[in-house]
């Protein structure tokens, strides 16, 4: 890798983080309502909170933007000829920017849609199949984060089974779905705790 390629790669990594750090939900709420999205609803700067406190139409637009945030950096990087290991890093860094935004004092959303955007570009079959499962689980259970955990876990399993075992892709490809699963779980301790407390209360009558 030449010096120019190194600078391009590091530029794309930095660009991925800064793009991921841009929060459309925060911007929309601030510009249209004059409030900080982190102070209303569930206080999460994401499309789900926008849907709850404002409405489904802006939430859909914001969800689409968050999804595209995951695609754009890896798409540009691939067109620049950046290698697959570096694409994996760029994808994970973009999600990290969404989760810990430099513009929001290193606070951010859960990263679900940005993770799916990067994943659908790098692992299209695995992601689309897992997302179909998520839709079914969400319809039955009505719990978003459980469906997301299952989705990201399934992407990891399918990457191992299909891309690595069947098609012979390099083993390091598994680092991407493993990384987005870990990043997601790092943002969900309260949700996980509340979920099991609720189930425990229901079981106890």
Automatic annotation (TrEMBL):
One of its GO terms (biological process) is phospholipid biosynthetic process. It is a multi-pass membrane protein. The chain crosses the membrane at residues 7-27, 47-68, 80-98, 118-137, 144-166, 172-189. It is found in: Cell membrane. Its EC number is 2.3.1.275. One of its GO terms (cellular component) is plasma membrane. It comes from the Bacteria. Pathway: Lipid metabolism; phospholipid metabolism. It catalyses: an acyl phosphate + sn-glycerol 3-phosphate = a 1-acyl-sn-glycero-3-phosphate + phosphate. Keywords: Cell membrane, Lipid biosynthesis, Lipid metabolism, Membrane, Phospholipid biosynthesis, Phospholipid metabolism, Transferase, Transmembrane, Transmembrane helix. The keyword GTP-binding does not apply. InterPro entries: G3P_acylTferase_PlsY (IPR003811). Its main location: membrane. The keyword Ubl conjugation does not apply. Catalyzes the transfer of an acyl group from acyl-phosphate (acyl-PO(4)) to glycerol-3-phosphate (G3P) to form lysophosphatidic acid (LPA). This enzyme utilizes acyl-phosphate as fatty acyl donor, but not acyl-CoA or acyl-ACP. Belongs to the PlsY family. Probably interacts with PlsX. PANTHER family: GLYCEROL-3-PHOSPHATE ACYLTRANSFERASE-RELATED (PTHR30309:SF0), INNER MEMBRANE PROTEIN YGIH (PTHR30309). This is Glycerol-3-phosphate acyltransferase. It comes from Candidatus Desantisbacteria bacterium CG07_land_8_20_14_0_80_39_15. The gene is plsY.
């Amino acid at each position: 890798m030449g010096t120019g390629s190194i600078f391009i790669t590091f530029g794309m990594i930095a660009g991925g983080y800064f793009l991921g750090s841009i929060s459309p939900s925060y911007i929309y709420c601030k510009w249209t309502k004059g409030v900080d999205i982190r102070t209303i609803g569930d206080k999460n700067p994401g499309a789900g909170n926008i849907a709850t406190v404002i409405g489904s139409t802006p939430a859909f637009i914001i969800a689409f933007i968050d999804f595209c945030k995951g695609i754009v950096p890896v798409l540009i990087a691939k067109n620049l000829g950046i290698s697959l290991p570096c694409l994996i890093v760029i994808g994970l860094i973009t999600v990290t920017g969404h989760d810990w935004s430099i513009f929001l004092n290193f606070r951010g959303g859960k990263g679900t849609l940005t993770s799916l955007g990067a994943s659908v570009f790098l692992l299209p079959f695995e992601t689309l199949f897992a997302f179909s499962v998520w839709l079914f689980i969400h319809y039955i259970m009505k719990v978003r984060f459980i469906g997301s955990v299952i989705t990201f876990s399934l992407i990891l399993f399918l990457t191992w089974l299909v891309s690595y075992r069947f098609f012979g892709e390099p083993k390091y490809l598994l680092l991407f779905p493993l990384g987005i699963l870990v990043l997601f779980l790092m943002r969900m301790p309260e949700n996980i705790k509340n979920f099991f407390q609720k189930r425990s209360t229901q079981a106890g009558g």
